Amino acid sequence: MQNSMLGSWVKHKYILKRRAPRTRTKQLSLHLVLLLVTAISFFPFYWLLAMATNKTSDIFAYPPRLAFGSHLFENISNVLKSIDFFGAFANTVFVAGVETMLVLFFCSLAGFTFAKFSFRGRKLLFVLLLGTMMIPSQLSAVPSFVLMARLGWVGSFKALIVPGMVSAFGVFWMRQYAESAVPGELVDAARIDGCGHPRLYWHVALPILRPALAFLGIFTFIRVWNDYMWPLIILNDPARYTLQVALSQLDNVYGSDYGMVMAGTLMATVPLLVVFLIGSRHFIANIAVGALKE
């Protein structure tokens, strides 16, 4: 009996020793693949940064120059001389910030309602909501402009903020998350304690929905920040231009200073990286807290 147990133990140790190198090889291969994918993903940003430090002649040199140049501050100075960068930056921060806050409020409220409340026509309304996601935004540009013109909002920030303060994707995302993350028993217990719909939303659902809100906030802020078509159509005062519209003024028919264009693009990209890093940290932290509570 002892000999058979000793034999099985030795066999088990031998198998573990044989498997250890294979496991290390798989881990090393996985890390190499991840490093390669990270390098490929980071390369466009590196190329943008490198082009922003060079002149146009250096950008079009053959073979391409991958090294950093010494003209970054010169290119930034040319951007500031060509457009009202800080004015457009402030306009974009205001529009993106206000619209993001409105999207978070209305989409989370609607998503929680669709997920945990039963009312007549709920399924039909949700299907119609999903149907609007299949309509390209270009098709609604003309009707939206006509509506804004009749309201007298052409050229104002209201025409940028109000049409986008609720998104079909945001409602769908919050509904799907609330369906699984908010326990029905918790909602029933809060109802027994006398909570109405506003208190259920604010005190029960909202703390649980923080990871989904963090993602939706990042997604919405980046979308509004990068929006070009609708601000170009609706804004007619250069003092109210958003950043993407103002940056488009750097390119002209007589020739383009691509070093200056890339410097302006870099200046517009850095705030997005900051927002993403801050928002993703809260997103990951809230997911980790939820996992620990489970």
Automatic annotation (TrEMBL):
**Annotated GO CC locations:** plasma membrane
Bilayer-crossing regions: 28-49, 88-112, 124-147, 153-173, 200-222, 258-278
Alphabetical list of InterPro entries matching this protein: MetI-like, MetI-like_sf
Q: Where in the cell is it found?
A: Cell membrane
Q: Which Gene3D superfamilies match?
A: MetI-like (1.10.3720.10)
Primary location class: membrane
Q: Keywords in alphabetical order, please.
A: Cell membrane, Membrane, Transmembrane, Transmembrane helix, Transport
The ABC transmembrane type-1 domain sits at 89-279
**Entry membrane topology:** Multi-pass membrane protein
**This protein's record includes keyword Protein biosynthesis:** no
Name the domain of life.
Bacteria
Extract one GO BP annotation from the record.
transmembrane transport
Indicate whether Membrane appears among the record's keywords: yes
Its family remark reads:
Belongs to the binding-protein-dependent transport system permease family.
Q: What is this protein called?
A: Sugar ABC transporter permease
Q: What is the lineage of its organism?
A: Bacteria, Bacillati, Chloroflexota, Ktedonobacteria, Ktedonobacterales
